């Protein structure tokens, strides 16, 4: 089995970087390209004219996007230096993380997803949900889950 295009969703967690290391190793072995995405969480103020009400929230959202873009740009440069021939990046906005990952999968036609999982169990998993679990259940391509 060979993988041509690997999708790697990332956030700031160490487990995301561990997943990225797996993606890099696989990509180097198969000559795969990698797309790194960062999904910005749904805005809790959707439908509210908070731009006038709370400028600090607007600044927070813009700073989060700027930080995410800087992080994935840095990851792209590192992958290129390490020998990955083609690396794409993307910021996904205004959807849940799982939806953003699955929509991007459909858009780019990747044939493997490699992502981290925080490994929450019990009530924490029930209350917080599991992005990895949802992606695993809905994906039509293999998903490699790197656990903490």
UniProtKB/TrEMBL annotation:
Keywords: Cytoplasm. It is found in: Cytoplasm. The keyword DNA damage does not apply. Residues 3-147 form the UspA domain. Pfam families: Usp (PF00582). Its main location: cytoplasm. One of its GO terms (cellular component) is cytoplasm. InterPro entries: Rossmann-like_a/b/a_fold, Universal_stress_UspA, UspA. CDD domains: USP-like. Belongs to the universal stress protein A family. This is Universal stress protein.
């Amino acid at each position: 089995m060979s993988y041509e295009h690997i999708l790697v969703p990332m956030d700031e967690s160490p487990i995301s970087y561990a997943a990225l290391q797996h993606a890099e190793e696989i990509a180097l072995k198969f000559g795969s390209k990698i797309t790194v995405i960062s999904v910005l969480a749904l805005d809790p103020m959707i439908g509210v004219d908070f731009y006038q009400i709370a400028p600090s929230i607007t600044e927070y959202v813009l700073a989060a996007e700027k930080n995410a873009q800087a992080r994935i740009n840095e990851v792209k440069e590192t992958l290129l230096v390490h020998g990955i021939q083609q690396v794409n990046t993307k910021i996904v906005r205004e959807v849940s993380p799982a939806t953003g990952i699955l929509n991007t999968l459909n858009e780019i036609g990747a044939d493997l997803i490699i992502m981290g999982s925080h490994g929450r169990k019990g009530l924490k998993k029930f209350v917080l949900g599991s992005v990895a679990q949802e992606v695993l259940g809905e994906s039509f391509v293999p998903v490699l889950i790197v656990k903490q």
